[in-house]
Amino acid sequence: MAESGESKLKLYSYWRSSCSQRVRIALNLKGLDYEYIPVNLLKGEQKNPDFLKLNPLGYVPALVDGEIVIADSFAILMYLEEKYPQHPLLPSDLQKKALNHQASNVVCSNIQPLQNIAVLSHINKGFAALEKLLKDCAGKYATGDEVSMADLFIEPQILGAIKRFNIDMTQFPLLSRLHEAYSELPAFQNAMPENQPDAPPSSVTS
Ligand SMILES: N[C@@H](CCC(=O)N[C@@H](CS)C(=O)NCC(=O)O)C(=O)O
């Protein structure tokens, strides 16, 4: 909820953007009301001069909180984490916290930027690394039995891999199990691409 005297958070998002989806999950988990502002990447709206004022790189997501503008999902999540400590995304245990940072960065740096047809093999490599990284610490979720930051990075990437790139996730049993667990959580369900206001009707079955 917006605190009194504060304007409502605004999220510039694209329904199918995994980077935007991470932030949507965080906003949902923390129970924060926000205005959804669609940016149609296929129409090139991320390159509109008005949007470039928010993020000169021309990427979604971007979060606007009053006078504060933050682009880049990682920076947004850190901001939300500090300003709205409810439902912490980072465990207090230092090792698990570091593991969350590491897993998040595997997605951020080694999977998502490479997510196009020519480089699908990099996605498989990143998923294989995540399987190894998490094998000794995963509980119901990536680093234990509570949802934490790594989960927010992992699920949109799995969804994208399945729905857009037809990657066979059975080769990644741990990630497949986590995917099942996420699919039962309302915060994750409500953040799904097809449940966003700018999703085309046909996306429900895609
Ligand atoms: N590191 C950035 C990456 C942002 C990013 O790559 N966003 C993609 C969508 S997931 C985008 O806006 N692409 C638009 C384009 O390539 O023109 C983040 O995590 O927010």
Give a concise summary.
This protein is an alpha+beta fold and 206 residues long. The chain has eight helices and four strands; from the N terminus they run E-H-E-H-E-E-H-H-H-H-H-H. Bound molecules: glutathione (GSH).
Walkthrough of the structure:
- Helices cover 45% and strands 9% of the residues.
- The two termini are 32 Å apart.
- The mean pLDDT is 91.
- A 4-stranded mixed β-sheet has the order 2-1-3-4, with helices on one face.
- α6 crosses α7.
- It is an alpha+beta fold and 206 residues long.
- The protein has helices at residues 18-29, 49-54, 73-83, 94-111, 120-134, 149-163, 173-182, 186-190; strands spanning 9-13, 34-38, 62-65, 68-71.
- A hairpin with a 2-residue loop joins β3 and β4 (68-71).
- It binds glutathione.
- Glutathione (GSH) is lined by residues 17-19, 41, 46, 58-61, 72-74, 108.
